[in-house]
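ugh ok fine here u go
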Amino acid sequence: MDDNWLPALADLAVRGGANVQPGQVVSLSCQPGQERLAREVAHAAYRAGAKYVDVTWHDPFVKRARALHAAEDTLDWAPPWLGERAKHLGRMSAAVVSLSGPVAPGVFDDCDPVRVARDRLPSIPETMALVMESSVNWTVVPCPNPAWAAMVFPDLGADAALTRLAEAIVHVCRLDTDDPVDAWRRRGAELAERAARLSEMPIDALHFVGPGTDLTVGLFPSSRWLGGGEHRRDGLAHLPNIPTEEVFTTPDPARTNGVVSATLPLDLAGTLVEGLRVRFEGGRAVEITADRGVEAMRGRMAADDGAARLGEVALVDGSGRIGPLGITFNDTLLDENAASHIALGAAYPAGVGAEHRAAANVSDIHVDFMIGGPEVVVRAVAPDGTESPLLVRGEFTA
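structure:
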């Protein structure tokens, strides 16, 4: 497969995702192994009229060196200038483009998972605030690379694996259409319509039932469903995730109860969490186990008081392009759009009415993990307690 899709993906990120405007500063976040797409994004951003493209790199091998050797009491320190940079991007109403996809699978396998979990970089609270305050127009797009390809397709040779991953990315990002930007506008409209229908339904809670899962997630009376795109605080439209296949809302952080088993692995800043199981009582995660990577997850959930409560619940049906492929990408951007999911940590203020916004969950983290699939039924719980099927075998019933 040739690389003609690289400029197309970059153009989609700039025009269809972040919606970069003339005169904007563009913050581009990436990792070693993603250089080629990063450079194409820079080209596309300057063609769109960007004033300056500011590239920031996060190297997981440097993070590994810190986990191995840094003094214990320094591991959770983050340079204050990173936070100041994020705040300045918000003040400038900048555009933000991030590239996703593992570039060094297993890089932390020989490190103490507790030490790794204490270093949450490149995530910082100030960046989370940019998203929650709608102060920037932003997007995240996947970037195929050889290490990621070998992780997803271990039985193929290096060239064949990379080709297969690139083909999958082209498909799920709709780069195989005549006009990918327009294709995502149309898909966004479909998701927005689904969100509007759900918002009109009298749903007091969602009940997830499946293998290892019996979980009830309570909603606010004013919870509203979102999907298909967002708007900056001044009204500028942008598409935060490419691809996106979800509709989501903000739950009541005090009303999650039961047990849930993740249906896909979770890549947590370079640590793969597999077989995750969580028990909730009164909204709080009180028991966390996993087949692999549990210490990393426990460390992330100990970040602050809100890190063990839910800030998002999202539904994904089978009408998108990711789930039907049957590929586990081991990347949250893609896997969360293959299956319904929940997120621990910060809530999206736009997903709840003003009268309940102060009660929505507050945290410095936001960690999605996948809990849906063909064997998981989602039921809508009405205010009177009656339940009716909402999502069955990948199809909405209403």
